[in-house]
Design goal:
alpha/beta; 3 domains; 7-stranded mixed beta sheet; 6-stranded mixed beta sheet; 19 strands; globular; binds NADP nicotinamide-adenine-dinucleotide phosphate
């Protein structure tokens, strides 16, 4: 086994699409991106969590899920009754979190993501509400741990909007944005431009497989509210509460209103808007989702059908518009896949720090014990990590905190190490690094 070891939590439409894509593209990921990916754990609500340290047979797990059989009945695997139990008992290099987590508390996704990030394990997710409600916290946790937190497909699915705004436009100061963030609502309003009633347009969207049988989240605006909150947190660095986003859905729109907007040369659209008093998310916020009659010259007016679009104002760039398809599991899956590849490629390329670490000096000077861990070990502790220097022939991070005697430190192979108390310095070693440190093994 080599490459990135992945936990995949959530094995519904998106999770299965991602598993299928990772299986089908395994060779290409290795040759094109130099990024091998091995799924070692899969979780769902019904069966719990199945795990194989050398990688699960994805074809077999997919076949079990498709046949309605438990995913946990795979030969040679271990299983836990819930996904969080499995995460707590095992190690991985990446959590792919694609459960469905309703608006209330964003659970179970939030707990899964916190568990991974607190242990310095990067997270990729398509799960909107945990990011909408706690995106800033999760991004900050990831930053403190020096790992990735990516949520591309939470906004505009497979159309790369978050990476474009945060990485492509890195250094630019975002000022405000407007967007059409729900493809179902846009498809309905597009159809209504000729006077079709809301009910008939909704029925057509359902027949086309766009709208769910219960389309409430799309047409009432909740889905768009979540996406606006995610943009605020991850692009502007400003966490919003749900009640800070004024929301009016499209359910009350009549065919006549849509036709009148079209007759005036424009279009009625369900517009999400985010503006701040100051640049970079500073000052008073105006966040709203509502139907608006847009004039013909508005770039959002020409976005028709099951599409998404976003117009960002940034300094010194000016106006950037991104548009693309915004519905369907393969698009959500594609956004997740792109994020996985970004993490995998980054792990492969990640340079080792050569900077001298005062933290390591302190640990050594105080005669504290360093516990040597093997390369695959990737977690311990809750304190901020610091890079170590290579002079000690150790590359990784030190976490300066006492380790509980009960804190189990899994090692490669079948051994398990229980650090002796008190242990104040623990080396957390990156994968792929051969460790020949001068430390003392207990
Ligand atoms: N589908 C799309 O087009 C799309 C687009 C963008 C974003 N998203 C987001 O992506 C996420 C996944 O969407 P989806 O369409 O794949 O949803 P889905 O088909 O309903 O699948 C959700 C999965 O999460 C699992 N799950 C629920 N609670 C769990 C728990 N406590 N522990 C472990 N697993 C749990 C479910 O288990 P069971 O199988 O046992 O029920 C199921 O496998 C959602 O947050 C959704 O909003 C979806």
């Amino acid at each position: 086994m080599n490459g990135l070891r992945v936990w995949l939590v959530g094995f519904g439409t998106v999770g299965r699409w991602v598993a299928g894509a990772l299986r089908a593209q395994a060779a290409q990921l290795e040759t094109r991106y130099g990024a091998g990916v091995t799924v070692i754990g899969i979780g769902n609500a019904r069966d719990g969590f199945v795990y194989h340290p050398d990688g699960l047979d994805l074809g077999s797990v997919l076949a079990a899920a498709a046949g309605g059989r438990p995913i946990t009945g795979q030969p040679g695997t271990r299983a836990w009754p819930t996904a969080i139990d499995g995460l707590r008992a095992t190690e991985a290099d990446l959590l792919v979190e694609v459960t469905d987590s309703p608006p209330g508390a964003g659970e179970p996704g939030l707990t899964h993501m916190r568990e991974a990030l607190r242990r310095g394990i990067p997270v990729v997710t398509s799960n909107k509400w945990p990011v909408a409600l706690h995106g800033l916290e999760l991004a900050e946790l990831a930053r403190l741990r020096g790992v990735a937190f990516r949520a591309e497909s939470t906004v505009m699915s497979g159309t790369p909007v978050l990476s474009t705004l945060t990485e492509g436009l890195a250094g630019a100061v975002p000022v405000g944005l407007r967007g059409l963030l729900n493809a179902t609502a846009n498809a309905i309003l597009s159809q209504m431009a000729d006077g079709t009633s809301y009910e008939d347009a909704l029925a057509a969207a359902q027949r086309a497989g766009l709208a769910e049988r219960d389309p409430a989240a799309d047409v009432a605006g909740d889905d768009t509210v979540a996406k606006l909150m995610i943009l605020s947190a991850l692009v502007f660095g400003r966490q919003l509460r749900r009640d800070q986003v004024a929301c009016q859905g499209i359910t009350g729109i009549t065919g006549r209103q849509a036709r009148d907007a079209a007759a005036a040369g424009g279009r009625l659209r369900h517009v999400a808007a985010l503006a701040f008093e100051g640049p970079g998310g500073a000052g008073t916020v105006t966040a709203r989702v509502r139907p608006e009659a847009l004039p013909a010259g508005d770039p959002l007016a020409s976005v028709d059908g099951a599409a998404n679009a976003l117009v960002l104002q940034a300094s010194p760039v000016g106006q950037i518009m991104i548009s693309g398809p915004g519905a369907g599991p393969q698009l959500a899956g594609q956004g997740v896949l792109a994020d996985i590849i970004a993490v995998a490629s980054w792990q492969v390329r990640k340079p080792l720090s050569r900077a001298r670490s005062p933290a390591l000096d302190q640990v050594l000077a105080a005669g504290r014990r360093l516990v040597r861990l093997w390369p695959e070990v990737r977690h311990l502790g809750d304190q901020a990590a610091v890079e170590l220097e290579e002079g000690h022939r150790v590359a990784g991070r030190a976490i300066e905190e006492p380790v509980e005697p009960s804190h189990r430190v899994p090692l490669v192979g079948d051994r398990e190490l229980r650090p002796q108390v008190p242990v104040a310095g623990v080396l957390l070693v990156e994968p792929q690094v051969a460790v020949t440190s001068p430390d003392t093994l207990p």
